[in-house]
């Protein structure tokens, strides 16, 4: 763990207490210095999963920065009377890094999501971020990761975006981050959103930090996940 920011502990996970702007500024410095960096963007589900899976908890402890991805984490820290300054989501961080990477002509590797999704992702990237160098792009449904890791090793990208969902993305990063001294970040379903395959919640829901609820209510696959939130809040309360 790099020690640039104070942290607040929620059920054993140490979240950085800072703003989006300061966090991005720090990351861009780390990237410019070719520091090997691992970012976890953690929501309540990840915290609950780590709470019951010691190996995964250890993997997250090895990350350099764990960001509060969602209002549930902010609520948890308020309950602990140690409120974090703001949400730092995987998707917002992804967009900020793409913009900066484009401005600075950096290179990025994209790993994850379905083959159809990454075809469209590539179109969006070349159109919106023409100066960003695409070091490589690969879908997230592979049997053998060796050729992909070799690609990353050969191309030495500044940014490695891994969108395999948790815990896969963090496990892969922890195992292979040593092959490239860039920034490695797990960003869940972000490729689906940027490619237009998953539509973000309408503005009202976003503004009220209810995007998670919107998605849970409109996507049957996610409905079950909503139940983990009350469990999480209860557990945080008990831990106080
Ligand atoms: N995914 C993948 N490989 C897998 C499983 C999932 O590339 O073996 C992708 C999936 O297509 C989706 C992303 O991982 O684009 C994240 O999925 P989800 O939205 O369920 O994760 P979350 O954002 O909740 O972590």
Automatic annotation (TrEMBL):
Domain of life from the UniProt record: Bacteria
InterPro entries named among the record's database cross-references: TagA_TarA (IPR034714), WecG_TagA_CpsF (IPR004629)
Cross-referenced CDD domains: Glyco_transf_WecG_TagA
Annotated catalysed reactions: UDP-N-acetyl-alpha-D-mannosamine + N-acetyl-alpha-D-glucosaminyl-di-trans,octa-cis-undecaprenyl diphosphate = N-acetyl-beta-D-mannosaminyl-(1->4)-N-acetyl-alpha-D-glucosaminyl di-trans,octa-cis-undecaprenyl diphosphate + UDP + H(+)
GO biological process, one term: teichoic acid biosynthetic process
Keyword Aminoacyl-tRNA synthetase attached: no
The EC number(s) this enzyme carries: 2.4.1.187
Functional pathway: Cell wall biogenesis; teichoic acid biosynthesis
Molecular function GO terms recorded: N-acetylglucosaminyldiphosphoundecaprenol N-acetyl-beta-D-mannosaminyltransferase activity
Keywords annotated in UniProt: Cell wall biogenesis/degradation, Glycosyltransferase, Teichoic acid biosynthesis, Transferase
Protein purpose: Catalyzes the conversion of GlcNAc-PP-undecaprenol into ManNAc-GlcNAc-PP-undecaprenol, the first committed lipid intermediate in the de novo synthesis of teichoic acid.
Family statement: Belongs to the glycosyltransferase 26 family. TagA/TarA subfamily.
Protein name, entry field: N-acetylglucosaminyldiphosphoundecaprenol N-acetyl-beta-D-mannosaminyltransferase
Organism: Secundilactobacillus malefermentans
